[in-house]
């Protein structure tokens, strides 16, 4: 005989960490199922690394081309996921009313942003593992302190995430799609990822060196290629971009 009250509903929100973890898993699955996002975040960086490491297209200076290219491609992977991919996905979620509906759920808005950021980090871990394996197969010989590399990647992720959310929360979805892809292409060419910054005029170098992708790629290159210590200058540039981008996104982001 069933005791009274055994099947009495107990409505209520799940614990916050569980909600964030569930949303993170959902965001990650959606990202990994999206063919266009995978092309942008995984396929293109991998192809660029293989192509420019094996074909003498760009003069990367003394040493093996893969030693110069790998740090830049790692920076490109962070930018493609934290900025371009996140901006486009979030922009269309906002257009279709997904964010508006999620904002009315027990998951707080900051929890949703936390889940999106965690999903980006999970994707970046997979990217870094894949690109590292490919780079080693091409003869990469990294140096330097892993902690410095981690600091650069985390600050780079924060900087690009803030800028991506700012774009997605202020522009229309179609404008976000066009602008995010345009910025991706421009920074791919002028951000020190494939083409060394010293190939540009001095005045342009001074400006391009302040871009987040330039600071990230140069910092990673100083550590991984040259075995330098902690690149405080590049970390400072990334920190400024991270604070400014996240603050602007928090202030101007529109949920509908």
Topology of helices and strands:
Elements: H1 16-33, H2 35-54, H3 65-95, H4 98-103, H5 109-137, H6 146-170, H7 173-190, H8 202-208, H9 212-224, H10 232-252
Please provide a written account of the structure.
One of its GO terms (molecular function) is ABC-type transporter activity. The protein has one domain (16-252). It has ten helices and no strands. 73% of the residues lie in helices and 0% in strands.
Indicate the proportion of strand residues. under 5%
Helix content bin: over 70%
Counting helices, strands and paired strands, the structural category is: mainly alpha
Order of secondary-structure elements: HHHHHHHHHH
Number of domains: 1
Query: Count of DSSP helices?
Result: 10
Subcellular location: Membrane
Protein name: ABC transporter permease
GO molecular function: ABC-type transporter activity
Organism: Streptomyces galbus
In short:
This protein is mainly alpha-helical and 256 residues long.
Keywords, please?
256 residues, mainly alpha, 10 helices, globular, ABC_2_transport, ABC2_TM_bact-type, ABC transporter permease, Nod_factor_ABC_transporter, transmembrane helix
